[in-house]
Specification:
The complex is a heterodimer of chains A (about 170) and B (about 325). Chain A is mainly beta and about 170 residues long. Chain A has helices at about 1-10, 15-25, and strands at about 25-35, 40-55, 60-70, 75-85, 95-105, 105-110, 120-130, 130-135, 135-150, 155-170. The N and C termini of chain A lie close together (about 10 Å). Chain B has one domain: Zn peptidases (Aminopeptidase). In chain B, strand 8 (about 220-225), helix 8 (about 225-235) and strand 9 form a beta-alpha-beta unit. The radius of gyration of chain B is 19 Å and the shape is globular. The chains are: A mainly beta (about 170), B alpha/beta (about 325). The interface between A and B is medium-sized, with 32 and 32 residues.
Chain lengths: ~170, ~325
């Protein structure tokens, strides 16, 4: 359980400050699919990405995720946010964040407005209910994220399904 | 993060479309007003009649005896295009090749006055199943009408009109053209541009394509390379007597697995070659129930819609041809 404790909680000893900092960081890889639908843009695809999370304490964390998706052309999905996780081996995570989609999409004119050239922006809420952590290794499956998207012309729904995510605590 | 977003937004606006300036747009709109709706429709009727009586392509040679494939024709429609070009005082060329079956595109060029080496291409395929009123006598008729409007009025750039052969078999004529000819600055391809239905629910679609419910708009389809050209189309037709234009931009070259339906006509070889090409269409089978059937006859088309497409086409070609 040492890894779990390091990744989950603040270290109490000043001498362990550097190790403590590392112990708060988890990095990993994930496979996912995402879709954003507005009347001015359809952007989506499947692919993979990488993520990093920083634990403030046993429950609260912040994350940054980058993914590269293919389907409607190729595009990069950048996500940052934060959330709350349960303590223990079963560590469901509830989180929220903002999304930036850059690159390929199907673009449409709306009325007299030409297709947007702006990136896709979004806000999302997510839940990773099948998420577990053992010895500093985090495994999460079927994580769902839903929210709203815009390309500065129209507003519509967006969703991301992370099929499988694997993370490792740097303090292991 | 906010700085990144701001930077991206600024860079997006810095990539704003090339604007068609006032005098060019005014000229384009003035020429488009000369579209002759009656002549346009008469050409569709003539072409459809020619297809109805034409000798059919040997479908057995195409390894298909299906009714559709045994009712494909091209010869007399090509002759109609050729004769029309000649009647306008132009000298059509042919680029015949034995592609099993043999293909022969027919083309003419109106030489540009100040930038003759830069070419604007307007093309439509003249082969058709059955009478092929919408697919594609409508597109050929619009091309011929724009040729009529420009025949005595040369633009700054050269305008090349091309009747493509055997689009239906697999874009054979246009593929050959892209490989053999100098590359145009921009191409505009017309395919199925005469069917309109303003009833709600008349427009079919695909997941991810938020098209209007009523099938009375003109789809102007581009890829990332040709995105600025579609933006110019939207700009020049704004407020004019044309159908509503729905611009659709496919990502990249347009060849992705989920956007393949946007590559179903003669603009596709241009896209795949990295060239700028725009595709005007009524969306064919996503709107027209007569697509590739015996009932694709002139009576099913909207003359007003067809004339509106011809105006949009004329405005686009003139704007591109005379743009600084």
């Amino acid at each position: 359980m040492k890894g779990l404790l390091l990744c989950a909680a603040l270290a109490s000893s000043p001498a362990a400050a550097e190790a403590s900092l590392r112990s708060r960081v988890t990095v990993g890889l994930e496979s996912l699919g995402a879709i954003s639908l507005t009347s001015a843009r359809t952007q989506g695809g499947i692919g993979g990405g990488a993520h990093a999370a920083f634990a403030f304490d046993a429950h609260w964390l912040a994350y940054a995720r980058a993914a590269w998706l293919f389907g409607l052309g190729s595009h990069t999905l950048l996500r940052v946010g934060g959330g709350w996780q349960r303590e223990g081996v079963w560590r469901p995570l509830l989180h929220g964040g903002v999304v930036l989609g850059l690159g390929g999409a199907l673009d449409f004119s709306v009325g007299d407005r030409p297709p947007s050239r702006a990136p896709t922006l979004g806000v999302v809420l997510g839940a990773a209910l099948l998420r577990f952590q053992v010895e500093g290794v985090t495994v999460s499956a079927l994580e769902l994220e839903a929210g709203l998207s815009t390309e500065l012309i129209a507003l519509g729904p967006r969703a991301t399904l992370t099929l499988l995510s694997l993370g490792v605590c740097l303090g292991l | 993060m906010s700085r990144l977003v701001l930077l991206l937004l600024l860079s997006a606006s810095a990539c704003a479309p090339g604007l068609i300036d006032g005098p060019v747009a005014d000229t384009a709109r003035a020429i488009a007003k000369e579209v002759d709706e009656a002549r346009l429709y008469a050409d569709v009727v003539s072409l459809a009649g020619l297809h109805a009586s034409d000798t059919r392509v040997d479908c057995a040679a195409l390894n298909s005896t299906a009714d559709t494939w045994c009712n494909l024709s091209n010869a007399t429609a090509r002759r109609f295009v050729e004769e029309r070009f000649r009647s306008l005082g132009l000298s059509p060329e042919f680029d015949t090749a034995d592609t099993h079956p043999a293909t022969s595109n027919v083309l003419v060029e109106l030489r540009g006055t100040s930038k003759p080496d830069e070419v604007i291409l307007l093309g439509a395929h003249f082969d058709a199943f059955f009478m092929g009123a919408d697919d594609n006598s409508s597109g050929v008729a619009v091309m011929l009408e724009v040729a009529r409007l420009l025949a005595t009025r040369p633009l700054a750039r050269t305008v090349r009109f091309v009747g493509f052969d055997f689009e239906e078999i697999g874009l054979i004529g246009s593929t050959r053209h892209v490989k053999a000819r100098s590359r145009p600055k921009v191409s505009l391809v017309l395919d199925c541009v005469g069917y309109s239905d303003s009833a709600k629910g008349s427009q079919g679609s695909l997941p991810g394509f938020p098209t209007p419910s009523a099938g009375d708009f003109l789809a102007a389809i581009a890829n990332d390379v040709s995105r600025p050209r579609v933006e110019e189309v939207l700009q020049v037709v704004k407020g004019q007597q044309t159908p509503a234009v729905l611009a659709i931009i496919a990502p990249g070259l347009g060849a992705g697995p989920l956007s393949g339906n946007l590559m179903r006509s003669d603009h596709a070889p241009f896209w795949l070659a990295g060239e700028s090409a725009v595709f005007f269409t009524d969306t064919a089978n996503f709107r027209n129930p007569n697509y590739h059937t015996r009932s694709d006859v002139p009576d099913t088309l909207s003359q007003a819609f067809l004339a509106g497409v011809a105006r949009a086409t004329a405005m686009s070609v003139v704007a591109w041809g005379d743009a600084p």
